[in-house]
Design goal:
The protein is α+β, with helices and mostly antiparallel strands. It has eleven helices and 14 strands. The strands form five sheets. The chain has a six-stranded mixed sheet with strand order 11-6-1-2-3-12, sandwiched between helices. It has a two-stranded antiparallel sheet with strand order 4-5. Strands 7-10 form a two-stranded antiparallel ribbon. A hairpin with a 4-residue loop joins strand 2 and strand 3. Helix 4 packs antiparallel against helix 10 and helix 6 packs across helix 7. The N terminus is likely disordered.
């Protein structure tokens, strides 16, 4: 079974509902050239292997069996002596070890409703959420930068528009290019695109997540078939409720409040997945990943990052959002999130590596 990266489709979405908030483009605009498609089409990640590996990580306990599956030189003996938790060392030994930092662009995209689930075309909707994540094994830390979807950017051939349009116009390749240019030529090693309906399916497969809903949330989005109807208080949200909580933005906090809620959902998911009982949900999780995730991460890279993420300490995970300001009512034809050079420098400096200055944390 091939471990080669997944290739992403670069075709534009034909679904008009996925362009509801995109600026109208002049007919005189140039069409952006599509990236060349590799001659040899590569296969999707072998998710059956992921399921087997995760089962192994979570079920092995007997010393005899451990001796058979973990090479003696794969165990971080120095880490054990210096105080690392045995379960962290065990998981790292059984999985793949993250050898270098990775900077990954994660896109939560509106699924193209008329495209078959899991098809390349189904991932070419608007990016409802955008995260730049740095996984650094040297400092055993994770930095997460949330990028507001209304951030104003120029897109070649399309003029000034919102950053969430990049995935519609040119797929993951263009989204990476535009994000990198906006953030001082930041390096982006890989991408992951998650169909937004995949969040709902993932939460349901995990049996729900516990969230403290801060206030009444009610809104209906007919284009994405969302019916958000939540009451305040600590509660276990099912998939539909969790998706509504993460995507709600019709209040005074707007997109920034939504970004904060998405980060809360990510932490709740991490806590749920770290629970050993996750093994009973593996078949459902594998099925969800096959249908709702598109990435150019190889199997080994995905395993290494997953293992690292599950073992990093919570206080070593830092979340921030790209600062800026909302555009004035009459400033532009459309509403934007305006980001200046100081905002970008504050978000990137000392946290993410750029091609410009080659600086890292």
């Amino acid at each position: 079974m091939s471990n080669r990266p997944i290739t992403a489709s670069k075709i534009r979405s034909a679904d008009p509902t996925n362009r509801a908030d995109l600026p109208v483009i002049s007919s005189e605009s140039k069409q952006i050239s599509k990236p060349a498609v590799p001659k040899n089409k590569q296969k999707r990640i072998p998710f059956a292997k992921i399921g087997f590996s995760l089962s192994l990580l979570l079920s092995i306990g007997a010393g005899t069996l451990l001796g058979r599956v973990i090479p003696i030189n794969a165990i971080d003996w120095g880490g054990l002596l210096s105080g690392r938790k045995p379960e962290e060392v065990l998981m790292e030994s059984l999985g793949r070890k993250l050898e270098r930092p990775y900077q990954i662009l994660v896109l939560g995209v509106d699924r193209v409703l008329e495209a078959p689930i899991g098809s390349p075309e189904s991932f070419n909707g608007r990016s409802d959420s955008m995260l730049l994540i740095r996984f650094d094994p040297n400092t055993r830390s994770v930095d997460i930068l949330s990028i507001p979807r209304d951030t104003q950017v120029p897109i070649p051939g399309y003029g000034v528009t919102k950053i969430n349009a990049a995935n519609v116009y040119g797929g993951a390749a263009l989204a990476q290019e535009i994000v990198s240019e906006k953030l001082n030529d930041v390096e982006i090693d890989r991408y992951v695109r998650l169909d937004t309906s995949g969040l709902s399916a993932l939460v349901d497969a995990l049996g729900g997540i516990e969230i403290n809903v801060p206030k009444r949330m009610k809104y209906v989005d007919k284009t994405q078939k969302l019916n958000i109807n939540l009451y305040p208080g600590v509660q276990t949200l099912n998939g539909e409720q969790a998706e509504g909580y993460a995507r709600f933005r019709h209040d005074e906090d707007g997109d920034l409040g939504r970004i904060q809620r998405q980060q809360i959902v990510l932490k709740a998911l991490k806590a749920k997945i770290a629970n050993p009982s996750i093994v009973i949900h593996l078949p459902d999780l594998i099925n969800i990943m096959q249908k709702h995730v598109d990435s150019n991460l190889s199997f080994d890279e995905m395993m290494a990052i997953s293992t690292f993420s599950l073992t990093v300490k919570p206080d070593h995970i830092k979340s921030n959002s790209l600062k800026g300001r909302p555009s004035e009512p009459n400033e532009f034809r459309y509403s934007y999130w305006i980001v200046n050079s100081d905002d970008v420098e504050m978000a990137i400096a000392g946290k993410f590596k750029t091609n410009e200055n080659n600086t890292t944390k």
